[in-house]
Amino acid sequence: MVALCLYATAQSNAKAALTIGDHMPSLTLYNVINAPNKSLDLKQLKGKAMLIDFWSIGCLTCFESFPKLQQLQNEYGDQLKILLVSPDEKAEVQSLFTEKRYDRFLNNLKLPMIVEDSMLASLFPHETIPHIAWVGADGTIKAITRREYVTQKNVADFVAGKNIELPLKIDAVDFDDTQPLFSFSNNTTVEQPKKIFYSGFSSWIRGTGPGSGLVNDTASGTTRIFIINGSILRLYLEAYRQPDLHMTVDASQRNLIVKDSLRYFFPRSSEQIKAEWKEDNNYCYEAIWPLGTPIARIREKLKKDLDDYFDVTTEVKVTMLPSGKVQKIFILRENNTPQN
């Protein structure tokens, strides 16, 4: 970390989270790497549009954005300043530049990185990354978005000073996936039962990323399985949980007999914003069981719940390829589709 005196000086300027229409405070940023100077005074950027991209080492999607961001910086030159902001330690980030697997993302990257950050993150709190803050040339916050909205047209309008109306990215920064997703405490006239066992679905939860887990809680005497913001295929992957079954990423391992495949996976060729697709096609699932329930029984119930809720029939078939290799194929058939 940088010296506490430097952090305290900068932190004194960052009082509250910013939103659209607020003015960006004058700050001096420290721990700058991949740039000639080790600090950056935002006053020097007055009159320039600025994109602040929050990222972290564990986020592959963040790395995939870097070449596009560099291209935008090259195109707009002094009219635009793009900053890459990470909470990761300086040595960790610097080591990435020596690893071959990151070459395609970092070889031609000349964007300044602010590392070991907490100050900018306090101004723009977030749960999921990439998280993009758009600061206009006049110093006001114009937008806070997901990466999908960093398009050629949006950036061109932004740099030109035009009004951009982009969906505000709202993150549930206090979301705690260790707590049950569903509450049964609304009825205050009835004493809460000591134990509650159930399974249930919800739609996509805005502002938090995907997640899953299986938790045995001896204090409450329960086993909890949960999947947060998962596609239908991701939910089934958790239900079947078999070695060498990767139907979410391997198209050869899935056979979908459906009317509209867009419900199940997002095609790369689609012009729809992926974040919008997720809102319509991602789900959450949770089940609370008595502690000690066999995991096979829990996953079988998950499969049945999924089949019933989505009105489909599913199975995994094992086939032998001409090469002699065994391949698993996940088959999903919507119940309203005709049989062959």
pLDDT averaged residue by residue = 87
Strand order of the largest sheet: 2-6-5-4-7-8
Give the class from helix and strand content and strand pairing: alpha+beta
Strand content: 15-25%
Q: How many β strands by DSSP? A: 15
How many distinct domains?
2
**Share of helix, binned:** 10-25%
CATH architecture assignment of the largest domain: 3-Layer(aba) Sandwich
The CATH H-level superfamily of the largest domain is Glutaredoxin
Query: What characterizes the major β-sheet?
Result: 6 strands, mixed
Give the helices and strands as they follow along the chain: HEEEEHEHHEHEEHEEEHEHEHEE
Q: How much is the radius of gyration in Å?
A: 24 Å
- For the record, the CATH class of the largest domain is Alpha Beta
What count of helical segments does DSSP give?
A: 9
Q: Span from first to last CA?
A: 64 Å
What CATH calls the topology of the largest domain is: Glutaredoxin
- Poorly predicted runs are 1-14
Please state the overall shape, judged from the principal axes of the Cα atoms. globular
Overview of the structural elements:
This protein is of the alpha+beta class. The protein folds into two domains: 4-159, Glutaredoxin (3-Layer(aba) Sandwich); 198-334, no CATH class. It contains nine helices and 15 strands. It has helices spanning 4-11, 60-76, 90-96, 103-106, 119-123, 152-159, 232-240, 274-281, 295-310, and strands at residues 28-29, 32-33, 40-41, 49-54, 80-85, 113-114, 131-135, 141-145, 198-203, 211-217, 222-231, 254-257, 282-290, 312-320, 326-334. It has a six-stranded mixed β-sheet, covered by helices on one side. Residues 1-14 have low confidence and may be disordered.
